[in-house]
Specification:
Blueprint lengths: L9 H9 L5 H6 L4 H13 L2 E2 H8 L3 H13 L3 E6 L2 E6 L2 H23 L11 E3 L3 H14 L3 E6 L1 H16 L3 E6 L9 E4 L5 H4 L4 E7 L3 E7 L6 E7 L2 H25 L4 H9 L10 H30 L1
Parallel strand pairs: 5-6, 6-7
Antiparallel strand pairs: 1-3, 2-3, 4-10, 5-8, 8-9, 9-10
Helix pairs in contact: 3-4, 3-5, 4-5, 7-8, 10-12
Length: 319
């Protein structure tokens, strides 16, 4: 079987296919109200029209509709022109709207980041946070990959590999070690991909498609979706140092074991097998982010406690 080469727009295609209520849901997601979405869709189908004709076409009161058309125009979603028989409205192509919305959100996000920037060191946060939106979970995964400086380790089903392939390739190009246990053949430039011997049967017989990921052993993400990859079942993210140490240890061992099983299945043994396993040393740094955090947090306090006990003992003996 040839490794799968990922298409970047796979999730967008699935999301469109999953929308069963026509275009209105997608248009609302772009920032339109339901009434604005109806008016816009009418203009796309029919072409330039007056507000009165639009109101008749969608069966809505003209008074309310004119306010919606003004809002659409102010957002840059429609254009207007004065004609002898009234004001005409024309839909801006949805591709232009999408690009405009993306740029507007990017500017707003950059401004918010600037205004909220702080030079204070973040305090340790040991909480386990739930993520209830699939797109938010995927963006968190991309942010973790983009922020990694040493390594990214993950085990992931096909829907996640498709979504994160570009981000993983970019991380590898930055000389971040990337190790993946996958469940279907896939090629991602610069990464070390090991195929689980069970293949797709592992997730087709399970609760859905899942992903577990560690970035530098400092942050972790677990996500489970349905088998089709449309619906989020559960997702959790954490910077808890102890959980991250355990996650890193488990994932590194998991990837190494899958590699060893693959070598045995191919009949590779002896020095050749050892060389192949040694080549994975970048995926097993001796100290991960979580372990380092625990050392910084508790070694100093442990040492201080021991000195205190010794001091008290010496004081007793001297009395």
């Amino acid at each position: 079987m040839q490794p799968k080469r990922v298409q970047a727009n796979g999730r967008q295609k699935r999301r469109v296919a999953a929308l069963g209520d026509g275009p209105s849901e997608a248009l609302v997601a772009l920032g339109m109200t339901p009434l604005e979405a109806e008016a816009y869709a009418f203009l796309v189908r029919v072409g330039a029209s007056t507000g009165y004709r639009i109101a008749q076409g969608i069966g809505r009161p003209a008074g309310n509709l004119y306010k919606s058309l003004e809002a659409l125009e102010s957002k840059g979603f429609v254009l207007s022109a004065d004609e002898h028989d009234g004001r005409l409205y024309r839909a801006v192509p949805v591709s232009e709207i999408g690009a405009s919305v993306v740029r507007r959100l990017e500017r707003a996000a950059a401004q918010a980041a600037h205004e909220l920037a702080t030079t204070e060191a973040p305090q340790p946060d040991d909480r386990l946070y739930a993520i209830v939106d699939l797109d938010a979970a995927l963006e968190r995964a991309r942010a973790m990959i983009a922020g990694a400086s040493d390594f990214v380790l993950m085990t992931a089903c096909p829907v996640f590999m498709e979504e994160l392939a570009a981000a993983l390739a970019e991380a590898s190009a930055r000389h971040v070690a990337v190790g993946i246990k996958a469940f279907a053949p896939i090629e991602i430039a610069g990464t070390h991909v090991v195929l689980d011997a069970r293949g797709e049967r592992a997730w087709r017989e399970g609760p859905g498609q899942w992903m577990s990921m560690s970035a530098d052993g400092s942050s972790m993400l677990n996500v489970l979706v349905d088998r089709e990859g449309h619906t989020l079942q559960t997702a959790h993210w954490s910077e808890n140092a102890m959980l991250n140490w355990q996650m890193y240890t488990g994932l590194s061992t998991n990837v190494l074991l899958a590699e060893a099983e693959a070598l045995i299945a191919r009949g590779v043994a002896g020095p050749e097998a050892m060389r192949a396993l040694d080549a994975m040393h970048r995926l097993q740094p001796p100290v991960s982010g979580g372990k380092s955090a625990l050392q910084r947090r508790y070694r100093a306090s442990s040492a201080a406690g021991k000195h205190g006990v010794r001091g008290a003992s010496r004081g007793k003996r001297s009395t």
